[in-house]
Write a structure and sequence with these properties.
The protein is an alpha/beta fold. The protein has a single domain (42-116, 151-177, 228-447), classed as Aldolase class I (TIM Barrel, Alpha-Beta Barrel), CATH 3.20.20.70. 41% of the residues lie in helices and 14% in strands. The protein has 14 helices and 14 strands. It has helices at residues 24-36, 43-57, 78-99, 152-173, 179-191, 194-197, 200-215, 224-227, 240-245, 276-282, 298-308, 328-342, 369-386, 431-447, and strands spanning 62-67, 103-108, 121-124, 127-130, 231-236, 247-249, 256-258, 263-266, 288-292, 317-321, 347-350, 357-359, 365-367, 392-396. Helix 3 packs across helix 5. The structure holds erythose-4-phosphate (E4P), phosphoenolpyruvate and manganese (II) ion. Erythose-4-phosphate binds at residues 69, 115-118, 354, 425-426. It comes from Ilumatobacter fluminis.
Length: 450
């Protein structure tokens, strides 16, 4: 790997999963426009997140990274963003209380548009058309015309990210995220369904803790520690020309930051050590994630640690394992050992979604809630066995009442999937399944019954 780095040095490396833009001049115009726009986040914010993740790496905090598989240009509304935030906040309270440590909240939002695909083409009847690669690239419609990449979409993605982030900042600082209020939503979940009843005891404990705080004189409504939260943004840094256009030199430190989001991650399909994605992300100062699937060897993971975090900065690198429920325990243990023995201060997070996808009898891409829980259990067991910290979870969810994953307290079945299947890419947990997942994760971490 070349020693010197610049925002465009990735261009000299082999690259995967990029669209075939039909018109280079049009692409250049769009990128120049984005380059001239303001950054979406500030370097100092990325550094605060990195410091928080450093606490996660040390076992003193937990990471909750969650949001859509792919944000949509069509499902873009205040309601949609608010409901997603609501669920993330509800999950975070349950996890914070159960683990007794701060929870760093990172959304897969305000920029999570570009999708890597297993196949470049999709068969529709007798015709092969290019795959859908996320609304930042093409349209989802099942025609060849819809799938033609359009650079204008890069500009639209920037504007949608900007508006989303604006609302996230407003909601999280303006009272929406107040602890009392979020706890009341959790109580509503517990009271309103048989699925929720299981978690009554934990919700009651949180309620008692809040009453205790008020009794000691703490004003839980106006104390800013309890009424505002930080939610950071993240997405897969897949389209490197877009990421390069938003990469700016930080005036306070002189370092380069990718100002499209606070945290960026490298996907399972683009994590080659000598590839363009590792080259680009090793040079920006943001905290970086990297997916680690079942084929990753301990040597490969160590080389990734060295490439991305040679200075061994705690919180700089988050390794997100996505092995599949049946593989995680045995697959992860050698990796945990190798990284621990090499002294790399990484965050280990569990993505229990991407290794557990299957096609339902009715032809829908889906995931079973129990396999998702089972991968988290295997992840926690592997960490207990190696004496390392199961630092976080990384999940695909929405606040809406969709029917995309089977199982959960409402016992969604194959036959229910057609009722409200709205994702533009992978199946997401719905609001109730997400909150249930937080309660189940909290239970297994508290009671050690993984
Ligand atoms: O979100 C992840 C990937 O883009 C997605 O899982 C790939 O799905 P595919 O196998 O249908 O291409
Ligand atoms: C593409 C994704 O995951 P992976 O790279 O792990 O397949 C994703 O997180 O949506
Ligand atoms: Mn996905």
């Amino acid at each position: 790997m070349a020693k010197s780095w610049s925002p465009d040095s990735w261009r000299g490396f082999p690259i995967k999963q990029q669209p075939q833009w039909p018109d280079e001049a049009e692409l250049d115009r769009a990128l120049k426009q984005i380059h001239s726009y303001p950054p979406l986040v500030f370097a100092g914010e990325a550094r605060s997140l990195q410091a928080g993740l450093g606490q996660v790496a040390a076992g003193n905090a937990f990471l909750l990274q969650a949001g859509d598989c792919a944000e949509s240009f069509e499902e873009f509304s205040a309601d949609n963003i608010r409901e997603k935030l609501r669920v993330i906040l509800q999950m975070a309270i349950v996890l914070t209380y159960s683990m007794g440590v701060p929870v760093m909240k990172v959304g897969r939002l305000a920029g999570q548009f570009a999708k890597p695909r297993s196949a470049d083409f999709e068969k529709i009847g007798d015709e092969e058309i290019p795959s859908f690669r996320g609304h930042i690239v093409n349209a989802a419609g099942a025609t060849a015309a819809a799938r033609v990449p359009s650079p204008e979409r890069l500009v639209q993605a920037y504007h949608q990210s900007s508006a989303t982030l604006n609302l996230v900042r407003a909601f999280t600082k303006g009272g929406f995220a107040a602890l009392d209020r979020v706890h009341a939503w959790n109580q509503e979940f517990v009271a309103s369904s048989p699925a929720g009843e299981r978690y009554e005891q934990l919700a009651n404990e949180i309620d008692r803790a809040l009453r205790f705080m008020r009794a000691t004189g703490m004003d839980t409504e106006s104390n800013s520690n309890l009424s505002t939260v930080d939610i950071f943004t993240s997405h897969e840094a897949l389209l490197l020309s877009y990421e390069e256009a938003l990469t700016r030199k930080d005036s306070t430190t002189g370092g380069w930051y990718d100002c499209s989001a606070h945290m960026l991650w490298i996907g399972e399909r683009t994590r080659e050590l000598d590839g363009a994605h590792v080259e680009f992300l090793r040079g920006v100062g943001n905290p970086i994630g990297c997916k680690v699937g079942p084929t990753a060897s301990a040597d490969e993971v160590l080389e990734l640690c060295e490439a991305i975090n040679p200075a061994r900065i705690p919180g700089r690198l988050t390794l997100i394992s996505r092995m599949g429920a049946g593989k995680v325990e045995d697959g992860l243990r050698p990796l945990l050992r190798a990284v621990r023995d090499a002294g790399h201060p990484v965050v280990w997070a569990c993505d229990p979604m991407h290794g557990n996808t299957f096609t339902s009898a009715g032809g829908r891409k889906t995931r079973d809630f129990e396999s998702i829980i089972s991968e988290i259990e295997g992840f926690v067991r592997a960490h207990r066995a190696e004496n390392t910290w199961p630092g976080g979870i990384h999940v695909e969810l929405t606040g809406d009442d969709v029917t995309e994953c089977v199982g959960g307290g409402d016992e969604l079945r194959d036959a229910d999937l057609d009722t409200r299947y709205e994702t533009v890419c992978d199946p997401r947990l719905n609001g109730r399944q997400s909150i249930e997942l937080a309660f189940r994760t909290a239970d297994l971490i508290r009671n050690g019954d993984a």
